[in-house]
Amino acid sequence: DAKTTQPPSMDCAEGRAANLPCNHSTISGNEYVYWYRQIHSQGPQYIIHGLKNNETNEMASLIITEDRKSSTLILPHATLRDTAVYYCIVRNAGNNRKLIWGLGTSLAVNP
Amino acid sequence: NAGVMQNPRHLVRRRGQEARLRCSPMKGHSHVYWYRQLPEEGLKFMVYLQKENIIDESGMPKERFSAEFPKEGPIILRIQQVVRGDSAAYFCASSPPGGGGAHEQFFGPGTRLTVL
Fold first, then answer.
1. CA-to-CA separations, B5 to A23, A54, A61, B36, B79, in angstroms, rounded
2. At residue A80, what are phi and psi to the nearest 5 degrees?
3. Using CA atoms, how far apart are residues B57 and B61, in angstroms rounded to an integer?
4. Which residues in A have their CB inside 8 Å of a CB on B?
5. Strand, coil or helix: what is A94?
6. How do residues A42-93 score in pLDDT, each as one tens digit?
7. Helix (H, G, I), strand (E, B) or coil at A18
8. DSSP state of A44
């Protein structure tokens, strides 16, 4: 599975959009991009995933560049409860579903 | 549909004792995963199970650690002769059946093991 690179930390003002970048320049054609987050001391929570097209759900939007070498997770209106570590993970579509975690981005949403 | 259940939430053991961490996957989920998170570190994959088969245990320490599938009841991560370095949060996750493709993993609240 391809390696991902994320900034270690980011800040965002409450109510504003949080844009979290992820680089995955070695991604291959059958690899999905997943985003999870972990609020302090809790189990990780799935947010969204995509392959080629941009995706949106009730939590966030995922923008994947045309060459698929990077992506951005967008939280449109960040709240204090969105303060968490956000993990971008690339995994192939094969039968081994294990997730390999990096260090993620620690997002602090400030009032 | 209840989420992934883990118990106990906190477990304290002395060096040399055994620890049993239990995981009940979501109803209908046949794929189960264990991850470990050391203090102030990211999650590390340990083992991936499908029903009663071990698919990938490349992250599991070769000794003292094992995954068990009782006929009834939760899946167990067993750690024998615990050492201080085993102190960590252990997370279980599950996902629904199906072949390749994209599959969301649902995580439990974790068991926090402290070895004295």
1. 33, 33, 29, 16, 19
2. -60, -30
3. 9
4. 32, 34, 38, 41-46, 49, 51, 87, 93-104
5. coil
6. 999 999 999 998 999 999 999 999 999 999 999 999 999 999 999 999 988 7
7. strand
8. P
